[in-house]
Amino acid sequence: xxxxVSLPWFRLYSxxxxxxxxxxxxxxxxWFFVAIMACKCQNxxxxxxxxxxxxxxxxxGIDQQTLHKIRDTLLAADLIDETYAEDYNLFNRIQxx
Length: 97
Prior knowledge:
about 100 residues, mainly alpha
């Protein structure tokens, strides 16, 4: 996939409701996980970490402290890896969940 191409959709398997990693996190973080994936498909989650943080805060309507809490929660649930914390390249870790 080219870096400048936006995807109009992404696949989310129905088994997500039974996935233990997803079920272990609080419901609002489940939503943020899906919302960040949607932002990634819109091709806006790229660039340096500061820029990406600003974009995600605007798109998700949250502050930086909340964004960092989301990041830490998703890391602890093993839904993303440390690469996310460095450059917000979310899809390095996402598999079929």
